[in-house]
Write a structure and sequence with these properties.
By secondary structure, the protein is mainly β. Helices cover about 10% and strands about 35% of the residues. An eight-stranded mixed sheet has the order 7-6-5-4-2-3-1-8. The relative contact order is 0.28.
Length: about 140
């Protein structure tokens, strides 16, 4: 399968909706870590794990610690990104979100059932492909 070059990231997932969904009413910025493999701009997700939001103001910001993430990473896997929940009607990443995402990781905001992706460079385009196989090089 040849992948479309119009996208910054091509993400392989088995299904999309259960991956990103956050249940219940908003109270804090809930955080999930995306774990898997990267192949250039291609990403394959192996798991999405909820981790504690350790920020002192968790309703407005998020912070995670590596000690909460490391137990989920198996041999050969990497942290690909971080998804966090925003209050209703605030679907875009804040400047703090963009500046705070570690270089090389994807960030995502989940709000009102939609996901907005970003990197240190700002908003980014992600194409989802429902597959378990790797993308062929271009």
């Amino acid at each position: 399968m040849l992948c479309d070059s119009r996208y910054d990231v091509v993400m392989y997932v088995v299904t999309i909706e259960p991956l990103w969904g956050f249940s219940g009413e908003y109270s804090i910025e809930t955080v999930k870590v995306i774990i898997g493999h990267t192949y250039g701009k291609y990403v394959s997700i192996t798991s999405l794990e909820e981790v504690p939001n350790r920020h002192s103001l968790p309703a407005e910001h998020f912070s995670i610690h590596s000690r909460d993430v490391l137990p989920y990473i198996e041999d050969g896997e990497n942290i690909i990104g971080i998804v966090h929940r925003h209050p209703p009607k605030t679907p875009m990443p804040s400047i703090n979100d963009i500046l705070g995402i570690p270089a090389g990781l994807l960030g995502a905001v989940w709000c009102d059932g939609e996901v907005s992706w970003y990197t240190r460079n700002g908003i980014t385009n992600v194409r989802y492909l429902l597959s378990r196989s790797k993308c062929q090089s271009m």
